[in-house]
Specification:
InterPro entries (chain B): AAA+_ATPase (IPR003593), ABC_transporter-like_ATP-bd (IPR003439), ABC_transporter-like_CS (IPR017871), BCAA_Transport_ATP-bd_LivF (IPR052156), P-loop_NTPase (IPR027417)
GO molecular function, one term (chain B): branched-chain amino acid transmembrane transporter activity
Shape of chain A: globular
Number of domains of chain A: 1
Distance between the termini of chain A: 42 Å
Strand content of chain A: under 5%
Number of helices of chain B: 10
Order of helices and strands of chain A: HHHHEEHHHHHHH
Number of helices of chain A: 11
Protein name (chain B): Branched-chain amino acid transport system ATP-binding protein
Helix content of chain A: over 70%
Structural class of chain A: mainly alpha
Largest sheet of chain B: 6 strands, mixed
Family (chain B): Belongs to the ABC transporter superfamily.
Keywords (chain B): Amino-acid transport, ATP-binding, Nucleotide-binding, Transport
Oligomer: heterodimer
Radius of gyration of chain B: 17 Å
């Protein structure tokens, strides 16, 4: 029972990170109908920025903030310079361009920082403290929950309570009509990519200290889990992304806990296949959310 | 009185073949001008060209003394022009209230929505419904209400009667006439429903195969039997 509880909390903690990353994928999919396969590589790039800044300033938190700012800038740049010019006549175009970005970003990171693992420090202890005699949560897990929770709350407030959020939603749902109503649709897309990339950066900063360390391909495995979470949630639904993330986190935690950690990467792919076969529109999607 | 909207020698095409040839017309403040003609005559193209949804073309479009060529679509509403596109253009994923707010969002401070809800009590009842839950008539009211929330001086209205019951069409026409009389709103009204359109319009323009075939007072157009038979089908 203790083990089950431990695995549950561990799964939720991982799931929170998947949720944040899936949320970033959903934000971009909703606005541009592109699955941003480059999001993992973009997040790693900003994690390297954090690494360099933290190294120079000696402060983890300055580096953390730098990663989020770098995420905003990188997201905006990718939309402005690359994604805006994609021909949407085939959904494959966006995928190919995003995969090309992955190769470029990982290649450049390898040239600058080298293709080796660098230790990534966690800002809080990762040792679980005892609750009622059971070691359940570490301070770091609490930090992860708080950070992801804050992002979810802030994004919800942004989209439902502010004029900018209303503009962003309108621009995503009906770009032509929005233009006629005076919404600067291009600017809203850029803002959407910037926010999504910053959320992706946050997810990267949260997950990298719990893995092997910083490496140009450090987010590849996380990407698959988060993509599964986003598909599970329907790709169109922010709530679905969060719930999907938590579900994927739990499933993977139980599988690696009871069957062994080596099974987990295969289990992610298995889960993705099951979702695509059994419920391709996801748990939360409205009809005709996805055609590709 | 100088014209609010002045279109001079407008030629527009999708690709190489022009759809509009040398179209000129004017709309005065407080005037409803009906654009009539058969399917494919170029009526919708005219509105889309005026609001910049179609690429630049030859000819001049002057609104309130300002040349509209090169003005971005999203800036148009700031000049005082609201375009209600064909098919109504309600954002179906947003609520009635959100759609209405969107209309006046660019204004600072944002205009109150109470007058719009007063104009369309039905929308007030359905304030928190999503766009896709509305009937066709309600969507048309929402699209017009949203355009009015921007407090425009000129309304470009594309086929407001499309798919609506005659009674609802009548209500919308009466509303347009009332707005013109009360607020001096100018309307460029594209309609297939010729009778309805001419019943409220001051001027009428008949388009045929992308050219202006006739232009006259609305009453004179409605009385011209030859013209009605040749271009308007009644």
């Amino acid at each position: 029972m203790d083990r089950f509880l431990f695995l549950t909390f561990d799964g939720l903690s991982r799931g929170a990170v998947y949720a944040a990353f899936a949320l970033a994928l959903v934000l971009i999919w909703r606005a541009t109908r592109i699955v941003n396969f480059a999001q993992g590589a973009m997040a790693v790039a900003t994690a390297y920025v954090a690494y360099s800044v933290a190294d120079a300033t000696g402060s983890y938190w300055v580096g953390f903030a730098a990663a989020l700012v770098a995420g905003l800038l990188l997201g905006a740049a990718v939309e402005r310079v690359v994604m805006r010019f994609i021909d949407h006549s085939s959904p494959l175009n966006g995928v190919v361009v995003a995969l090309g970005l992955v190769l470029i970003i990982q290649g450049v990171l390898g040239m600058i920082y080298g293709n080796e693992f660098r230790p990534a420090e966690a800002p809080f202890s990762r040792d679980a403290f005892n609750i009622g005699g059971v070691a359940l949560l570490s301070r770091y897990d609490v930090f992860v929950f708080a950070a992801v929770g804050a992002v979810v709350v802030l994004l919800t407030l942004l989209f439902t309570r502010t004029p900018t959020g209303l503009r962003m939603r309108a621009a995503a749902f009906a770009p032509d009509v929005s233009r006629l109503l005076g919404v600067p649709v291009g600017g809203m897309l850029t803002l959407g990519w910037a926010l999504a990339a910053a959320v992706g950066s946050l997810a990267g900063m949260l997950v990298i200290p719990t893995e092997l360390g910083l490496h140009p391909t450090a987010m590849d495995v996380l990407f698959i889990s988060a993509f599964t979470a986003a598909v599970l949630g329907g790709l169109d639904s922010p709530i679905g992304a969060v719930v999907g993330g938590l579900i994927v986190g739990l499933v993977l935690s139980y599988i690696s806990g009871y069957l062994g950690a080596t099974v987990a990467p295969m289990a992610v792919l298995g889960l993705l296949v099951v979702v695509l076969l059994g419920r391709p529109d996801g748990l939360f999607a409205r009809s005709k959310a996805r055609t590709a | 009185m100088s014209a609010l909207l002045e279109v001079d020698g407008l030629t527009v095409g999708y690709g190489a073949a022009p759809v509009l040839h040398d179209v000129s017309l004017t709309v005065q403040e407080g005037q409803i001008v009906a654009v009539l003609g058969a399917n494919g005559a170029g009526k919708t193209t005219l509105l889309r060209a005026l609001s910049g949804l179609l690429p630049p073309s030859t000819g001049r479009v002057v609104f309130d003394g300002a040349d509209l060529r090169g003005v971005k679509v999203e800036r148009l509403v700031r000049h005082g022009i609201a375009h209600v596109p064909e098919g109504r253009g309600v954002v179906t994923e947003l609520t009635v209230d959100e759609n209405l707010r969107l209309g006046g969002l660019w204004r600072k401070p944002q205009p109150p929505l109470a007058p719009i809800y007063e104009l369309f009590p039905r929308l007030a009842e359905r304030r928190s419904h999503l766009g896709h839950q509305l009937s066709g008539g309600e969507r048309q009211m929402l699209a017009i209400g949203r355009a009015l929330a921007a407090q425009p001086r000129l309304l470009l209205l594309d086929e407001p009667s499309l798919g609506l019951a005659p009674r609802v069409t009548g209500q919308i026409m009466a509303l347009l006439r009332d707005l013109r009389d009360r607020t001096g709103l100018a309307v460029l009204l594209v309609e297939q429903n010729v009778r309805s359109a001419l019943s409220i319009a001051d001027q009428g323009v008949v388009l045929s195969l992308g050219r202006i075939a006739a232009r006259d007072d609305a009453a004179a157009l409605a009385d011209d039997a030859d013209l009605r038979h040749a271009y308007l089908g009644f």
